[in-house]
Predict the structure.
Amino acid sequence: MRRFIVNRVLLSVITLVILSIIIFLGAQILPGNVGRKILGPLADQKSVDALNAKLGTNRSLIVQYWDWISGVFRGHLGNSAVQQRPVSAILGHAIVNSAKLALLAFIIVVPLAVLGGVYAALKEGTVRDRLISLGGLSATAIPDFVWAVVLIVIFPIGLGVFKPVATAPPGSNFFEQIYYLLLPAICLVFVLFGYIARMARAGTLEALDADYTRTAILKGLSQRVMVRRHVLRNALLPTIAVVATQLGYLMGGLVVIEVIFTYNGLGKALFEAAQKSDLPVLESGVLIVGIVYLAATLIADILYSVLNPRVRVGSAS
Amino acid sequence: MASPEERVDALRAQGTDHQNHLIDELRFGKIGRREFIRAAAIAGMALPAAGFIAGCSTKRDSVTRPDAPQRGTPRPGGSFRVGLLVPAGALDPVLVGDQSGLGVIGLSGDYLIWSDRTLTPRPRLAQSWSHNGDGSVWTFKIREGVRFHDGTPMDAEDVAATFNRLADPDNGSNALSALSGVLTKDSAKALDPTTVRFTLEAPNGNFPFLTSSDNYNAIILPKNYDGNWDKTFIGTGPWTLGHYRPDEGISLRANKNYWDPARQPLADNVEVIFYTNEQGMVLAFQGGQVDFVQQFSVSGGRAALTDSDVITTELRSAAHRQIHMRTDQKPLNDKRVRQAIALLVNRKVLVDGLLATKADFGNDSPFAPVFSSTAPGVAQRDQDVRQAKQLLAAAGVADGFSIQLDTWQGFEMPALAQVLQQELRAANIHLNLSITDSASYYGEAVFGNSRWLDSTMGITEYGHRGVPNVLLGAPLESKGTWNAAHFKNKTYDALVKDYVAAIDLDRQRAAAKKLQDLLLDEVPILFTYFYYYLSGTKKNVGGVDLTAMGCIDVTRGGFV
């Protein structure tokens, strides 16, 4: 098991180094320069040049890359070219916000979708199964920004409940923060439910059809015990992998949701950094999203191997 | 008691030649009352005196404006919430170039002059101003007893340092494009603690506007200002910094020591909340998260326009989209082709369809109806497909041609491009649309490295200005840095110089007439409409003042 984990961590480090180079090179093709983005298209070129020199964004690419990557290794992410404040402060705040939203969405959607999927599988072919499967699929098929606008129009504007923005005022307590986050979290539930429930349903059906389940039934176990002891443990393997990959999406990919609900999460921070050519923020932010993805898949692999010894044995051999 | 005529004569006796000339223009009906007040204020006449003289006249203004329909008297106290888009960069009055940034700096800073919603200059930190006769040297009297938020007294040296800083190319100043050719980095001198003299590079009749809120970088900062404005929000304005949360918003507190008794803040606090995009801001506004939004467009805020809980303030403005045509490239180098394109455009369709009637028609020059110097009597260009086809035939392109139109994905510009594409088909002119993001469109914003400046035809957005000077220069002068049409015309250049140097409204209008006629004939750029500045308040809010520049004054704002 230890060897398995060490191997995966080493692979992750190599992946991150490659990712850092790809991010840096990719960021270079963004049009415009920082000085021009800050001062606007109609600003005098002399002012733009002076500002770029002041910000250090007119230095060679290699110098800029070295500055950034050596800083990353020293734990110093540098300063935002646009906002003139530490990248760590910008991204730290954004990560905490994204984690709050992701956690709330996960707490709602994962049990709901797993239960829904398992229940649909147990009632395979019935109206209830179709309702869960088709309903979930339809909800997932509708883009998140459509859900966001529809929910805002119905609830805060129409009914006067919930908030159209997800950022609670400074000094808000825990429950107020949850209240502000509910609407975007519900959006995410709609988007993720169908996918996770489908995986849970498929895994359950497969487990229900397995020899060990038949044996358990023949042994005379009740359905509840059979499902808990034999089906769930095996049915949830693919679901865990799906949930883990969604974590990366929730941490850095919620650009539209965060923009519409004016929530300063990692997705919005990255979107704005790309728009403004703020390379220090963009590069460090994408790197962090990469780390989250890798960490999530690593945890998923470990869980997978705990639940399924064949993976451990296979990778060890 | 003296009769009004006698009092006007008494004021004439104290006035300069220029001011008396304006009184004559009003008396003989050449200008309206509002135009008189505005021109008299620029010439340095005290506003109460100008208002009195205007009140004696019966001449109506040629331009009427939609009034702000906010109702009721706001109550003192409470927290007032303002919605703005996220500023483009770090908040620094020297660098700010976007509307949100200027909205913020104007809350805690003051200008020498406030250019109000009718484009009338009103004294703020400057008590009065005058020029040397030809407008090449301007002297400003600075208000005494004003202090910065940290308690330091504000004086003429701070004013001079502010403008010299803005005119210095080494500072990355965003005002440089407006001050270029007007001020250099040592043009402003403090003669004594309350007097500043500006020696201009060339005579300029509208110079007070360059020191006003129309030149939004020009809030007065301490002479030792060295950046990091967002740590202190230092200024002399009615609101002081409480707490700044970049990307989220700002808490501002009422400045209890504010110098202006007429503008003492009514609310205890102002909460500025930032939004990433217009749609999110409008939804939040409708959902009751803010009491006032600085601006929304017709394309992004239609829902607010029809919301019965929202009061929309409409201000006429000079903001517009320029559709440039390369005058040095075939087939657009023939002015008959450019005229034909202008005649194919149905401006009513644009104004009604794209802007829900919230715009004035443009007449292919930067002289918007909102400017008092715009010459009356220039015939409005209308759609005339038959004449357009005749002109194309005369130019040898009767069968039409294909051409690329560049613009970027913002505001109503893609829709405008599509309407143009549709309308030009009537004469077999095929527009191939190339719509990118703003960064790709503007590129480096220099000739040879910018779709904007290098494209054969393009649509570019231009914001509001208090006077048309900048719009006449950079986009149209032979050496203009924004001259996307590559228009080179010596007569035009000379006329612009005349216009800029003209001190009185009569001469400005005379020069404007020639410029309008010339541009209507040459058509290097299509100016099809000047859209209104739209701002929203909730029904229970009153007292908010704003200008089409995007400057907001919420000192008297509150809940009714």
About this structure: The mean pLDDT of chain B is 90. The CA atoms of residues 15 and 45 of chain B lie 8 Å apart.
